[in-house]
Amino acid sequence: MAIRVTRRNVIKGMAGAAAATTPVFSPYVLKSAWAADPIVLGLPIAQTAQAGVADHQDHWNGSILAQEEINAAGGILGRKLELKVVDIDPLSPESCQVSIKALTDAKVHAISCAFTLAPIPTADASVKYKCPFLWGVTQRNYTEEVAKNPDKYSHCFQTDPSEVHYGYTFPIFLKDMKDRGLWKPLNNGVHIVQEQIAYNQTISKALQEALPKSEFTLAKVTDIQYPVQDWGPVIQDIKKTGAGAVMIDHWVAAEYAAFVKQFQADPLKGALVYLQYGPSQPEFLELAGKAAEGFVWSTVLGVYADEKGTEFRNKYKKRFPGVMGLVYTGNSYDTAYYLKAAWEAVGDPNKFKEICDWIRVNPFRGVCGYMDMNNKYQECAHFPDDGNPVSATELEKGMGQLYFQVQDVEHKIIYPDPLKEVTLRPAPWI
To answer: In this structure, which long-range contacts are made by residues 7-16, counting pairs with CB atoms below 8 Å and at least 24 apart in sequence?
Structure first.
């Protein structure tokens, strides 16, 4: 996940705040005689918070697109799909609980959320009501609690793999690039530049655990603290360490944009530089422009560029012009259609237990890949197999972690092989 605040999203948030506690209706559906009351999908969306607005706006947009399509095609069980949106501060446990309670008090039929950074309090606010709760929270600390308390959290599903796979898979990715001759490393060292929130620390820890099992070694760990006012000292540390690969384990897209501009001006020549997740948000390319060229990043939850994913991308860009986010846009769209399938299979959206039981044993293939949450963590399986739970040995049995490189100011998938659009090419500083 990434957290950011931009003028673009503040404006969108202000526009959306007026509708924060009211239903969102499709402009294409004006039917006056639906079979029954609407089926209501609850959306806790960060609109006025200081963090999370970008990803949450993407989640809202993807949900709207799915809602419009579903209603234009006749709805669900002859009923209109309605979105109930409430504001949320993803960093505040109290706000998270208030937002979830507002949705359960409104008797929504399910909750779809991007993420919060207080996942346990957020989930706890839903356990009494127990409607299906699907979200791309990407946190193993949370799914471990699901595994320990299966009855309590039987209704909570993580619609992507956990963040530990960012660390576990990085040496696998590096080896693949090296073995294919696409990357000629200066050496086998990996330099981790880590931020201090738990999400980034978990990724760093997983990578440090994975490195001794690979041909790569830990060169150094450098701590940074948000906000980073000047990347100059960090870049000098990177150059002094001289590792073949550098992971910037951070979370703010605007600060990544500042980093790439400074690094391009004074690079460690020959290094492969990886930026953790943040470039997925439109702000990165908007601010960095050509300075983003050559940098690599990845997400465990991204819109594929296969036929299904490309069709979605085209529809989304037509509905929401501009630079497209590649994560929660597709995840929210998939979640709405996953719930549609579950509601139709069970036949009654009020049968929460039966719907959750159906989701648990019936995987769903969406624009972001294969969602199979039938495991103790109730999280999606990860592809490629990195030897850690929960992984899949085949692409169509897991959700592909997408590695991108910025090429010609566009994000292009370079790994894993079954999903790649292009191959890794030398960065400008190589």
So the answer is: 8/282, 8/283, 8/286, 9/53, 9/54, 9/57, 10/53, 12/53, 12/57, 13/46, 13/47, 13/48, 13/53, 13/57, 14/47, 16/45, 16/47, 16/57, 16/60, 16/85
Backbone angles phi, psi at 416, to 5 degrees: -80, 165
Distance CA 59, CA 44 (A): 10
For residue range 108-154, what is the model confidence (pLDDT) as tens digits?
999 999 999 999 999 999 999 999 999 999 999 999 999 999 999 99
Alpha-carbon distance of 304 to 227, in angstroms, equals 32
Cβ-contact 219, 171 below 8 angstroms: no
**DSSP assignment string, 23-59:** EE--TT---S--SSSPEEEEEEE-SSSSSSHHHHHHH
Overall size of the chain counted in residues: 430
Token reading at 151: 């009855």
Tell me the C-alpha distance between 335 and 425, whole Å. 34
Look at residues 112, 101, 110, 127 and name the one whose alpha carbon lies nearest to residue 76.
110
Torsion region of 138: left, alpha or beta (phi above 0 gives left; psi -120 to 50 gives alpha): left
339/67 Cα distance (integer angstroms): 11
For residues 49 and 39, what is the distance between their CA atoms, to the nearest angstrom? Answer: 28
**Chain centre distance of CA 79:** 30
pLDDT greater than 70 at residue 350 = yes
| Cis upstream peptide for 390 (omega within 30°) | yes
What is the rounded CA–CA span in Å between residue 348 and residue 177? 49
Which phi and psi angles does 403 have, rounded to 5°? -100, 130
Distances (CA, A) of 286 to 51, 131, 281, 327: 18, 38, 9, 17
- With 60 as the cut, is the pLDDT of residue 220 above it? yes
Tens digits of residue pLDDT in 244-253: 999 999 988 8
Give the burial class of 15: count Cβ atoms within 10 A of its Cβ; 0-12 exposed, 13-18 middle, 19 or more buried: exposed
Encoding tokens for residue 335?
């979640």
> What is the value of pTM for the model shown?
0.92
Nearest to 287 by CA among 316, 258, 265, 309: 258
183, burial (CB in 10 Å: exposed 0-12, middle 13-18, buried 19+): buried
Band of pLDDT at residue 35, cut at 50, 70 and 90:
confident
**pLDDT greater than 70 at residue 164:** yes
Task: State the pLDDT at residue 282.
Answer: 87
Residue type for 36, please? A
